[in-house]
Amino acid sequence: MQTMTKSMAIVRAEGSLNASNAQDFQLCLMQQIHCDASSGLVVDMSNVESLDSAGLISLVSALKQARQLRKRLCLCSVPPTIRIIFELTQLDRAFEMLEEMPFSMATAA
Question: Are residues 8 and 102 in contact, defined by beta-carbon separation less than 8 angstroms?
Fold first, then answer.
């Protein structure tokens, strides 16, 4: 599910982000990043139950594309079980992580 705020697009990731759906997830992220109406992308991770290497690669690819376009990509509400994957891979240093959806974005969604 995706929503557009004034400046940031929001993608709500759900369930498992794995090899079976990573390509579709990455395509969704890329479409939002390339949208001229947004200055970046917030990925709401609050409903993500599991993340494998394919899901992680789709997020890293989207981050790389966002940086090339000089746009922001933020992850928000990352569950502790998922956050540890970012910490173990040291990708928590690469991604901008927000504890929760900023109020202005949450109300727009």
Answer: no
Cα 37 versus chain centre, distance: 17
Measured between alpha carbons, how far is 68 from 71 in angstroms, rounded to an integer?
Answer: 8
DSSP secondary structure, 38-58, as one string = -SEEEEEEEEEEEE-HHHHHH
Instruction: Provide the residue-wise pLDDT of the chain in tens; the chain has 109 residues.
Output: 454 444 888 999 999 999 999 999 999 999 999 987 888 999 999 999 999 999 999 999 999 999 999 999 999 999 999 999 999 999 999 999 998 876 555 444 4
Residue 57: give its domain's CATH number: 3.30.750.24
- Residue 40: both structure tokens together: 């970046």
Domain count, the chain: 1
Question: 3-class SS at 7?
Answer: coil
- DSSP-derived pairing of the beta strands 2-4 and 8-17: antiparallel
- Expressed as residue numbers, the domain containing 17 is 2-108
